[in-house]
Every structure is written in structure tokens, then in C-alpha cells.
Amino acid sequence: MKLEKVVIKTDEKDLERVQKVVDSLSQMNKSVMIGKVIYGRLGDNILLSFNTDSASFPFIFEKLTINNVKVILDSSTEKLRQTITQKKGPVPYEGWDSLKKQNRAVESIEAIASSGNYQELFRIIKDIRNEKSRIEEAQNALASTVSICIQNIYQNAKIQKSRIDDSVNKLLEISSDQNLRAPNLIEFTKMAGIFAIELDSNDESTVYKLITICNNNQIHKYANIAAAVKFSKIVFSNLVMHENNLEFAIKKLNLRWLNICFPIVEREFNENDKASFTDLISFIESKR
User: Fold this and answer.
1) What domains are there in the chain, each with its CATH number?
2) CA distances from 85 to 43, 74, 117 (A)
3) Buried b / exposed e across 65-84, counting CB within 10 Å, b at 16+?
4) pTM over 0.90
């Protein structure tokens, strides 16, 4: 079966409407074949692409264009565009040359990786205009780049104490990054959470912020429990000093969420850590 690639150009403002038009195609014609939609970015624009069979292509192209969805054309589809224009009026389109004009200077994957900019690697991987070799190089560099990113954020906070809050927020963003949920990358969401916990544990004035990490339902579940364990060990080592931190935990700690997380990651903690976690949960329950 010969496949045709459909490429659509839109922006954030019109993306939802375009997605609805694409979703409606198979409802209008049950025989239409639409492959997985892949998203890419080009400056402020968003590119959507999917494969279809040759028989479905004219129908899809016509429905998209009469719904004012901008399709990227090559020479092979120019005749089809002219036919639709004669029947329906002008067709919104752009040629591939318009995309090439917007290309930024190409930065090497090595340079991107060394800076820890893993988000840029994801953009390269998702950009359908990139050569296969560049996409594969970006994929191969992802793991080391995420690691560099985490280490850079952590070290910056260690050097400049004023940046701890900002660094913790960035680490928690990494820990909650859905792009890192792939099996070969998910350990980095755990690592980012662990570093965030360490930064908030280094000063008595920030220990209470561990409760926020405990309650965060977007990060790696190991980090939720590790934050509770760390908080427990710190505050129960000196109840008088940490009276305010305990009061904050009594008011804010989400026990229900922690009890959901604990069985999932329990095997990753030693007996001492488990005891600390249980002590904290029992104490909070007794005070509510």
C-alpha cells in the first residue's frame, strides 16, 4: 500500500479547532485511514503530520482545505489543489519552501547535549523536517543530556543559596515531565525529585517545603515517599526545634496520597526508612 503524508501548519490559538477537524475525518468517512498524528514545532507554529493511503488522500485534503486548515503542499499535490480551487474556491496552503525559510541556524546535537537542554532535543525528535540521522543522534543523547540538566540545576543551587527555591521548582518540573516517562528515562524523574528533597533539607527554614513535595501528585512517586521519610527523620530528631514544621505537616500533609504512593515504591526503601515513614503517618493521624 502506498502511503501519503499529510502535513498541517497551525498555531496554538487554532490548534484545538484543527484537531477537531482532523478527528472528524474518520467520522465523515469510515473507510478513511488516518495514522498516528505526530506533532512538531516551527517557531511559533505547530506542525501536525500523519500518514494515509492514496485512496483516502484526496478526501482528506479536500475536507481539510474547505475547513480552512492550512496544508503544506509539494508538487505532487498541486494538481489536486487546483481541482479543489475550481470547485470550492481558493485553497489555504503553503509550499515546503515556506518552512525552509523559517529554519533556524542548526546547532549541533553535541552542543545542545553539553548544555543540558534536553527540551530542545525533544523538539528536534518531534520535528518532521529533520533528517533521520539528526533525530537518531538526538534520541541517543537524551539520557546523558537530562542527567547534565539535573546536575547543572543542583550545582547552581549549591553555589548560590539564593537560587535554591528556583532550582527546586525546576527539578520538580523535570520530575513531573511527561516526556521523561519512557522506561529508559523515568529514573531521571526520580533523580530530579531526590535532588529537590536534598536542597529543601539543608536548612531548618525550608524543611517545611518537603511537605509540598510529599503532596505533589505529578512527580515520581518515589520522591513523594522519600520527602516524607526525610521530613520524618529531621523533625523527630529534634521535636522542640521543629515544632512549627510539625504543625505545618499536621495541617497540610496529604495522607491519602502518600498511602497510595507507598505500596508502589515500598520495596525501594530499607526498613529504617519505612519505620520513619510509618512514624510520621501515625503521628499526623493521631493529631487530626
Assistant:
1) 3-100 (3.30.70.260), 108-159 (no CATH), 161-287 (no CATH)
2) 29, 16, 44
3) beeebbbbbeeebeebbeeb
4) no
Q: What is the pLDDT along the chain (288 residues), one digit of tens a residue?
A: 577 788 888 888 899 999 999 999 888 888 888 888 888 777 678 888 888 888 888 888 888 888 888 888 654 555 555 554 555 555 455 555 555 544 455 688 999 999 999 999 998 888 877 778 889 999 999 999 999 999 999 998 888 878 889 999 999 999 999 999 999 999 999 999 999 999 999 888 889 999 999 999 999 999 999 999 999 999 999 988 899 999 999 999 999 999 999 999 999 999 999 999 999 999 999 988
C-alpha span between 208 and 122 (Å, rounded): 34
